[in-house]
UniProtKB/TrEMBL annotation:
EC number: 1.14.11.33, 1.14.11.51, 4.2.99.18
UniProt region (Disordered), positions on chain: 337-381
Gene3D superfamilies, alphabetized: Alpha-ketoglutarate-dependent dioxygenase AlkB-like
Name recorded for this polypeptide: Nucleic acid dioxygenase ALKBH1
Record lineage: Eukaryota, Metazoa, Chordata, Craniata, Vertebrata
Keywords: Dioxygenase, DNA damage, DNA repair, Iron, Lyase, Metal-binding, Multifunctional enzyme, Nucleus, Oxidoreductase, RNA repair, Transcription, Transcription regulation, Translation regulation
GO terms for biological process, alphabetical: DNA repair; oxidative RNA demethylation; positive regulation of gene expression, epigenetic; regulation of translational initiation by tRNA modification; RNA repair
Pfam families registered for this protein in UniProt: 2OG-FeII_Oxy_2 (PF13532)
Organism: Triplophysa tibetana
A GO molecular-function descriptor: DNA N6-methyladenine demethylase activity
Location of the Fe2OG dioxygenase domain: 199-333
Subcellular location: Nucleus
Names of required cofactors: Fe(2+)
Binding, Fe cation: 217, 219, 273
A single Gene Ontology CC term: cytoplasm
Length: 381
């Protein structure tokens, strides 16, 4: 292929990744999801194989405190051609996803964490996103058109080292404590996947409404790429596209359901990926059944998982009937590593900014891109 052909393909959005991204993003008529790998169903795909996890570094009690089944019962998969990529099909204990979903919707958007609303609202106005939204949500049943609540306007939240969407860097000057319970969950999942000592230092929560998408990108801002990137999803199902080391490589499509965990490590740590769409919920079944389950036994005081009260769950389940929350957890620095000096950082930022702008979906109105704006990695909603 000539360079001219390649650049014309990019201009017209015709490379394999863009083509598939647009295919799944289309709403009318809805796309055919036949080719999308569904890890929740018996696998009949040559690309997929069972992945053996290592349950020995963890005891059952430890994982159950975080709301996870014993590691030996997890259904973990790998994909041929993607070494280091691990997909764990909902390893959560019945009822425990409610706790994690509530943390994502009620607690993690709270200060000192940073969210998209902070970009154009005064700190006092984004102090109580949850409380401010409750009244509006309760009025919604009245039939009158109510304005969008802050919860519905939430697009992203950052934790720990707060990712700077403009410079595409983390900085030691912009750090707040990483939530301890999410650190514990991540540490345990990473250990089961062969990464003991994982240190959760940065988190990005993405809030997807039914028409949201996330553009093609690579997560390369972390300083140490030998540590895995973990991803947890709650709520509606998404189509996830996992591409190659080159932006235009043809991706593999898979469903990410509520409770699923993805680990991108080794050679897969720096692969291009995207979320072209949220899959419409089946008629009459707006909430995935794993989110309607309740805990089998009363949580103990030293458990991470706690009961979610009825009022809080009412709000969460209303929101999740039309939304998906994804949490990615990252270790930014290797052990003993420190941040490079600012000079080096700003140089690196320029390079990645340029490549990102070239590679994004021009003409896709508002698709959520890795070049983050106030509204997220540029999304549709
Ligand atoms: O929502 C997802 O599944 C992916 C999120 C993601 O790629 C990111 O936050 O970098
Ligand atoms: Fe990502």
């Amino acid at each position: 292929m000539t360079a001219k052909m390649a650049s014309s393909m990019v201009e017209h959005g015709e490379d394999a990744f863009r083509k598939l991204f647009k295919f799944y993003k289309r709403r009318n008529p809805p796309p055919d999801f036949n080719e999308v790998i569904n890890f929740a169903k018996p696998i009949n795909n040559d690309k997929v194989f069972h992945y053996e996890l290592n349950s020995s570094p963890l005891n059952e009690e430890e994982v159950s405190k975080a709301g996870l089944q014993p590691v030996k019962d997890w259904r973990a998969f790998a994909l041929r051609g993607y070494p280091g990529f691990i997909f764990i099909s909902n390893p959560f204990l019945p009822g425990s996803q409610q706790y994690w979903a509530k943390q994502c919707l009620k607690n993690y958007p709270q200060k000192p964490n940073v969210c998209n609303l902070d970009m154009h609202m005064a700190p006092a106005e984004t102090e109580n996103i949850w409380e401010q939204s409750i009244d509006g949500i309760q009025r919604k049943g009245s039939g009158k058109r109510e304005p969008k609540t802050l919860l519905e306007k939430l697009r992203w939240v950052t934790l720990g080292y707060h990712y700077d969407w403009n410079s595409k860097t983390y900085s030691p000057d912009h750090f707040t404590p990483f939530p301890t319970e999410l650190h514990s969950l991540s540490h345990r999942v990473a250990a089961a996947c062969g990464f003991p000592g994982f240190n959760a230092e940065a988190g990005i929560l993405n809030y997807y409404r039914s028409d949201s998408s996330l553009g093609i990108h690579v997560d390369e801002s972390e300083i140490d790429h030998t540590r895995p990137l973990l991803s947890f999803s709650f709520g509606q199902t998404a189509v996830f596209l996992l591409g190659g080391a080159k932006r235009e490589d043809r991706p593999t499509a898979m469903f990410m359901h509520s409770g699923d965990i993805m680990v991108m490590s080794g050679p897969s740590r720096l692969l291009y990926h995207a979320v072209p769409c949220i899959v419409p919920a089946p008629a009459g079944n707006p909430l995935p059944s794993c989110l309607s389950q309740t805990l089998k036994s009363e949580p103990q005081n030293d458990d991470i998982i706690q009961n979610v009260n009825e009022g809080d769950w009412k709000v969460c389940s209303w929101y999740l009937q039309t939304s998906r929350v994804n949490v990615t957890v990252r270790q930014v620095l290797g052990s003993g590593q420190t941040f490079p000096n600012t000079e080096t950082l700003s140089g690196a930022a320029h390079t990645s900014m340029d490549s990102c702008q070239k590679s994004d979906e021009e003409g896709e109105t508002g698709t959520h891109k890795k070049r983050k704006t106030e509204s997220g990695y540029e999304r549709d909603s």
